[in-house]
Amino acid sequence: MITTRELTDHIKKHAVPFNKTADLQPLIQKAGQAKYALLGESSHGTREFYTIRADITKQLIQEHQFSFIAVEGDWPACYEVNRYIKGRAPEYSSAEDVLKKSFYRWPSWMWANREMVDLIQWLHAYNQQQTDRKIGFYGIDVYSLWESMEAIVDYLKKIKSPDLDKALQAIECFEPYHRKPENYGISAAFYGEDCMSEVMELLSTIKENKKMYDQDPEAVLNMNINAIAAMNAEHYYHTMVTNDNESWNIRDRHMVEALQHISEFHGSSAKGIIWEHNTHIGDARATDMAKEGMVNVGQLTRESFGANHVYAVGFGTYEGTVIAGTEWGSPAEIMTVPQGVTGSWEEALHQAGAYNQFLLFTDDNKDLFSNVIGHRAIGVVYHPEFEHHGNYVPSRLSQRYDAFIHIDKTTALSPL
């Protein structure tokens, strides 16, 4: 067992200070060799996590031929951004316009923020210079049950598909719950009143008739992912009221399933950049999640695609400010992020040098950073005054990630 003093010394020896993106080149080169670069964050409301990930993303696209970005967002909303950056959405006047109009469901600040405007506008300009290798932007989360069902109906109406009746039957089944997932979950879990068969039948019909939808390959991808999102969302909401851990697993398995479909669409040589919270991209087996029978994207991608094809970068901070809500659906607030608690990874990194720094974990140094130590995780709901009771995930940092970026003092996002 490595002592706190020894850990601080190891960080001093192996961590590299940085002031600008160019200083991160050793990390970017490593990530660029992978098929999937997983870029994390320890909160959904920190400016520096977004801006640094955006800078890394631009480098991976320009220098390492990455094909798409997949984020912890809803497929329908992100698909509007995808249309915009590919020049297929004349109804949006700017990056700010598409973000404002597409991300309206709480917590909208995760993607409708000033920091994202720059990246989306950059992607739009970059794609204008491309002929056949346009970068895609997709959401791989599972919450878009109603929005995905509506997108399927709209598309089937547009092409006058005979599958429209099945889609209308499926969406009609969900109407009594008035877009309130908790109502549907209670009805499905406790009263046996669910819409599983309707959604399954729709998905089966779409698969059987897939040859009908060959005219526009990306429109087909859009419909297929929406159908999968609807099916997995039904399963998620059905499960969440009785088994929180299993609903988590459904969500992260859906993310990897969506990622596989996106990769297939972009071709065998496609490379993807994934933006998600550390709790998704950091391998669950290196945390206490494993004891609870929980899996995540970091674990599943390493298992499915091979650890050598996945490069996970965790992000953390010692102190600062963050955007979050006091409860689900409450207004976004700027909150103070207190200094990392004693004995945490955050405190160790700060003690080793109160500046921005990054660690690359290698076969030679992994053992030095394999202590089980608390690592901060802030969600969209946050209570700074109580964070020491539940915001620290016991983690073996060098097994959870391939690299780690520490920003000593951070600031809150700027919602649109």
Automatic annotation (TrEMBL):
Which Gene3D superfamilies does the record cross-reference, listed alphabetically? EreA-like (biosynthetic domain), EreA-like, domain 2
Q: Which InterPro entries does the UniProt record give?
A: Emycin_Estase, Hydrolase/PRTase-associated, UCP036794_erythomycin
Among SUPFAM superfamilies, the record links this protein to:
EreA/ChaN-like
Positions the record marks as coiled coil are none
**Pfam families given in the database record:** Erythro_esteras (PF05139)
From the Swiss-Prot or TrEMBL record, give the protein name. Answer: Erythromycin esterase family protein
Native organism: Alkalihalobacterium chitinilyticum
